[in-house]
Write a structure and sequence with these properties.
Blueprint: E1 2-6, E2 10-17, E3 20-27, H1 35-58, E4 66-70, E5 75-79, E6 84-85, H2 91-110, E7 113-114, E8 123-126, E9 129-132, E10 139-140, H3 144-161, H4 166-181, H5 183-205
Antiparallel strand pairs: 1-2, 2-3, 3-5, 4-5, 6-8, 7-10, 8-9
Helix pairs in contact: 2-4, 3-4, 3-5, 4-5
């Protein structure tokens, strides 16, 4: 196995599964937590993530196939998507793909799924298809507030990691999102995003 990424919650390794390239995701032990509690949390999150990966594929979102789940070791073996993260693409390409990303996020929300970690690094372009990765923080939720948190995060990412194209990429994202969820729901979520931003500014002033 080869380590390909160290994350806050888990490490990713390149491996093989039945003659196919695969990714092994292993959740980290939190030493500050009681060992029994830590084991329970890791087990629950591992099962939940594997279920989410299967769920989103059922309504047409491209995501890695789950090959094997081991709750005891808090690990998942899944399909490797050998494309490039949207984060690493040329700026004009990111602008163009932002509409598709908005459509994908809209599809998640319309079907009651909050991703929880919407960054441009968690979208992979492979053979003209965008795959959505890392459902470790995802949850089933139809709450507009949760969906607004998703949009607030990706807006922050665009503003920090892609500042030069933020306006164009964000507008394209919203066009794609609106096309899936509809104008009424889109307006509601954008209003909630503004409220979240307002609370953040107030907290900074205080």
């Amino acid at each position: 196995m080869k380590l390909v990424k160290r994350g806050a919650e888990a490490d990713l390794y390149k491996t093989r599964w039945q003659n196919s390239d695969a990714i092994l995701k292993i959740r980290k032990t939190r030493k500050y937590r009681n060992p029994l509690l830590d084991s329970r949390i890791k087990r629950r999150r591992t099962i939940k993530e594997s279920q989410m990966l299967c769920l989103v594929k059922s309504f047409g979102v491209s995501a890695p196939l789950v090959y094997f789940v081991n709750p005891k070791t808090a690990s998942i073996i899944m399909q490797e998507i050998p494309g490039r993260p949207v984060h690493d693409l040329a700026e004009q390409k990111i602008i163009k793909l932002s509409k598709t990303i908005g459509e994908l996020v809209g599809t998640l929300h319309k079907n009651g799924v909050m991703h929880g970690d919407l960054t441009t690094s968690n979208f992979i372009l492979y053979r003209d298809t965008i795959f959505v990765l890392d459902f470790g923080l995802a949850q089933v939720s139809t709450k507009p507030e949760d969906h607004a948190v998703d949009l607030r995060l990706i807006k922050e990412i665009l503003n920090s990691a892609h500042a030069k194209i933020m306006s164009s990429a964000w507008n394209n994202f919203l066009n794609g999102y609106r096309g899936v969820v509809g104008s009424t729901y889109h307006a509601k979520i954008i209003r909630l995003v503004s409220e979240i931003e307002g609370r953040g500014r107030y907290a900074q002033v205080v």
